[in-house]
Amino acid sequence: MLFLASSTNVWEDFIFMVLKYIFMKEIKSRKKSGFFKKVFVKICRILGYELIDQSSLEFPVSNKKSDDTLSVPGAKSFSLGVGEFPITRKVQGIDIIVKTCTSVQLVTQNKKRIFEKEKSEYTFRSLQSLYKSALDLKKKFPKIFIQFTIIDIGSEENSKNKLISFVKDFPAKFIDLDKKKIDIEPVTINKNNEIIERNMAKTMKSIYESFDQGQKCKDLVYFVEDDYIHKTESLAEMVFAYEKFSSIFERELFMLSTDYPYLYKKMENSKILVGEKYHWRTVKESLLTFLTSNQMLAKYEKKLFDMAKNESNPFEKNLHEIFDKELCFSPLPSLSIHCSNVNSVFGLSPNTDIKKLWDDNKI
Q: What is the pLDDT of residues 6-48, one digit of tens each?
C-alpha cells in the first residue's frame, strides 16, 4: 500500500486523503491496481508529493529506495520516519581551506601518532580523503561550487610539489607561507622549549592566513588541519545537515566533522538532531577543524584573528566563547578521525573503524 511520505500543510493532507480515497475505491483488480498506481504516482509527482510503498520501502515518485539519499539539495530535507522539511538556506558553495606542514609531527608534543608514520603520510592521506569526499559532494550537489586552498608552512620542497596534485580536479590555490610575508608576530605561551614555541608561532601564522583567506569566501568555509582523515560521505553529510539545521533555526551555524572523545568527559546537555544519514548533537567545544559560513567569519572576525595572534590556554578559548552564543553541531558517529597519539583525548573517535578509514586512503 502507498502512503504519503510527508506533509506539513493541512490542505495538502486533505487533497491527498481525497486522492487516496478515490484511488482505493477504483482498485477492483490487480490489473486496474497497476494502472491506477501509475496514474496516482504521476499526479503526486506533479503536485510535489513523495510516496512510500510500505511493502517494499521504495519511493515510486522519485524512484528511490529507503537507503538512498532522499533529500533534494536546496529544496527539501527528508528522513524516513521524521518526514520532510523545506530548505530555506540553500548552500551555493564551499571553500575547503587546508593547513599543511609535513615536517612537524605534533606541534606541542614529542609523541608519535597512531600508526607511527612520517608526518607527510598523514597530510597526504588527509588530502586524499578530502578529494574523495569532494567528488561525492559534487555528485550529490551537482550545482555546488567547490574550491580548495592549501596553506603550507615548513614542508619539504618535494612534499610541496605533491600537495596540490591531490585536488587537481577542482579549482585550487597553493599558498606557501615560507615565501609569503605575514605582518604579525604571534604571542606564544612560554613553554620553556624554543622548538615547540617556534613551531607554535608558525602554526599561528598559518591559522591567521586561513582566516584571512576565509574572509574572501562567498558561502561555507571548511577549515581543516592536515591530520584529519575523512569518510567519503563527510562533506555531503555536513552540507545536507547545514542546509537543514540552518533552515530550522533560521541562523548560521558551526559544524564539526569529528566526534571528539574529550567531549564525553563532561556531562553536558545536548540537542540531538537527525541529518541525512547521521545524527548530530550540539557541542560547546572543538579543535580548529570546523565548518561555518562567511557571515559567521565576518561576525566574529576580531575574536578569530585574536586567537591566531595571541595564544590562549586552551588554544581554542575564543572559539569556545563563540560557541556559547552560537550553535555548533558534531556528528554521531564521527565523519572523520583526528590522527593524534592513541592516548590523546583529542584524538580517536568512539565507535569508528579507524583502521579501515586509514587503509581506504592509502597513497
A: 555 555 665 556 555 555 554 444 445 566 667 766 776 666 6
Where a domain ends, among 67, 83, 113? 67
Would you call 235 helix, strand, or coil by DSSP?
helix
Cα(333)–Cα(257) distance, integer angstroms: 10
What SS3 class is residue 137?
Answer: helix
- In the numeric block, the cell 566563547 is attached to 321
Residue 152 in domain: yes
Reported as a single tens digit per residue, the pLDDT across 233-290 is 999 999 999 999 999 999 999 999 999 999 998 888 999 999 999 999 999 999 999 9
Q: Which residues pair with 72 in a beta bridge?
A: 76
Q: What is the pLDDT of residue 145?
A: 98
Residues 166 and 42 in one domain: no
* d(C-alpha 315, C-alpha 313), whole Å: 5
Which residue in 71, 46, 121 sits closest to 278, CA to CA? 71
Helix (H, G, I), strand (E, B) or coil at 359: helix
Clarify whether residues 260 and 152 are in a common domain.
yes
Q: Which residues contact 36 (CB under 8 A, 6 or more apart)?
A: 23, 26, 27
Based on the fold, state whether residues 231 and 341 are members of the same structural domain. Answer: yes
Q: How many domains does the chain have?
A: 2
Tell me which H or E stretch contains 292.
Answer: strand 290-293
Straight-line distance from the first to the last Cα atom of the chain, in angstroms, rounded to the nearest whole number: 49
Residue 79: inside a domain, yes or no? no
| Length of the chain, in residues | 363
- Tell me the pTM: 0.86
Residues linked to residue 176 through DSSP beta bridges, in sequence order: 152
Residue showing cell 551537482: 142
CATH number at residue 338: 3.90.550.10
Residue recorded with cell 577543524? 289
Residue-wise burial string across 194-217, b where 16 or more C-beta atoms lie within 10 A, e elsewhere: eebbebbbbbbbbbbbbbbbbeeb
Range of the domain at 269: 93-360
Averaged confidence pLDDT in the chain: 86
- 145 and 55 assigned to the same domain: no
